[in-house]
Structures are given as structure tokens and as C-alpha cells.
Design a protein that fits this description.
mainly alpha; 0% strand
Length: 137
Amino acid sequence: MQLLCRNYWKIHPEFKVTSAGFEQDIQNTTAALVIGDRTFAMNGRYPFEFDLAEHWYMYTGMPFVFAVWVSLKPLDDRFLLGFETCLNFGLNHIDDVITNRPKTEQAFLTTYLKHCINYRIDAEKHKALQYFLALIS
């Protein structure tokens, strides 16, 4: 967010550390970065909503890497197999996640989880991650 503010939008807002419930104070000139599942119920609630991935792409032409699993030491094959099994289980049960959310969120979640997010790192995402790291260093 700070990188996009500085380099893309050319603005310099004051950033503050927040506490639980901070999103209730979003109004007038106050904005907030909200991530994760909490955003699903907030979709459409505010007059201005920005998708970081969309704006990162408009700025760089590259995909946005939200998160990666990393290790500083080699991982054994058993761990890697278990990790891959868990990842595949999650990917194969996206519909279960969607149907367990309120009906008002299901259409948005279907589009978001099935068509907007790609769960595997590839060469293009790796390049984008390296570029991001270079910009913040």
C-alpha cells in the first residue's frame, strides 16, 4: 500500500497502526487497508474501494503476489507432500467455503476465489515478487 501510494498514486498519507474494529472509523478523509476474509462482508460498503492487485497491475503490468510460503532451510519430501496435499484439499473445496458464507457474499466469492486468484507461483509471479522486493529495498 505504501509503495503504491508513493510511486503510483503520488500521495503521502499518514499511516497509523490500528487496532481491532478500526474499519468502523473509515469516513471522510480516513481510509484503511483491510485484507483477508474481513473484506468479503465489506464489499460495496464504502464509496471508494480499491483492489491492490488491480492497481499493482496497472502500475507494473505484473501480477500481484499476496503471499508465499518460504523456508530458510531445505524441507524434507514428506513435509512437501503434506503441504501439497493440504493445498490441493483447499483448492478442491472452494465451493464448500463459498456455500458456508452468507448468501449475500456468495456471488462475489465465487468470482473472487475461482477467477481472480491464482494459487500457484509461476515465473511471471516470481518476476513480480523480485520487482516488488527491489522497489522496497
